[in-house]
Specification:
With 352 residues, the chain is α+β, with helices and mostly antiparallel strands. It has 3 domains: 126 residues, Roll (Outer membrane lipoprotein wza fold like); 89 residues, Outer membrane lipoprotein wza domain like (Outer membrane lipoprotein wza fold like), CATH 3.10.560.10; 76 residues, 2-Layer Sandwich (wza like fold), CATH 3.30.1950. It has 12 helices and 16 strands. It has a 6-stranded mixed beta sheet. It has a 5-stranded mixed beta sheet with strand order 8-7-11-9-10. A 3-stranded antiparallel beta sheet has the order 3-2-6.
Amino acid sequence: MFAPGQNMDTSRIVRDGSAESSRVELIQITPKLLAVDAATEKDGQVPAELLAYHPQDYRIGPSDLLYITVWDHPELTAPSGQQQQIDANGRLVRPDGTLFYPYIGTVRVAGRTIEEVRSEIASRLAQYVESPQVDLAILRFASQKVVVNGAFAKAGAQPITTTPLSLMEAVSTAGVNAGSADLSNLVLKRDGREYALNLDALNDLQQSDLYSVYLKDGDQVYLPYNDRRKVYLMGEVNAPRAITYKTKNLNLADALGSVGGLNQASSNGKAVYVIRGVEDLARQKAKVFQLDAQSPTAFILAQRFNLQPQDVVYVGPAGVTRWNRLISQLVPSTTIIGTGANVKNDLSDSSN
């Protein structure tokens, strides 16, 4: 007899040869399955080419603002006057990579280090100033930058300076939006290639590794939002709903715990399923993982079984629950029939 309510008949997946069942694979959650998954996990690994990059000395570029000091010659150091703000006496690098300096004229500075430019200015000034003592600093870095976008509190451009900028420092400066960020899918775009990094897993590494990924001019860092990083809990759980998560993993035990666990009055402990879809169901099989929650090892297995975004966790009803639902559907009907019969009998009695 058919009973109302949602129910998953997994026996069809195993025995039925229909087109529908051939697109689904039923997999038991066992210690062997978890061992295989653990062996193939690569979370937390940083690509070798990222670790191999080491920034060189900073190269001056267009739009950088330089401050050139010639000791004992304030007219050269601060031609606008000592009372002016320091930026007013800065030397802006032109779009063509040059700047103008008194006495020596045009100096090409783009693509050169601070020391290289300092030495050239001192050498050329020696024709006009005896033993010039020249110093050079960069007031504003504008020629090289990285762009940080996504679930950050302060997304936007960050300059590359004379101090190498690590990926973790850039992320820290931007500030992760903890409530909406997907920490497991940070993407670094460099030279036409994308590197997927698990930021949450990186936090488990040693500090020396955390700050060993350095950024360079043109890099883009994107931290996605976790609006699609969710799983759905349905069926005989105490509070069915979709839950989002931002960390690298959400295990089955935590997911069930977040909705109050299985409904003890109506759930079937042997019918805990994790339904995992595929992009092309015509070519790939969807997977249905089954956990026997009545097994003594069930809690341990659930703790070690990691869910994936868009998984559906479904807990089936117990047999008595399906029977009770059938009765609850029939009772209103039998009540109406009984009421009609009573009315008919009352009318018959009154006519006698």
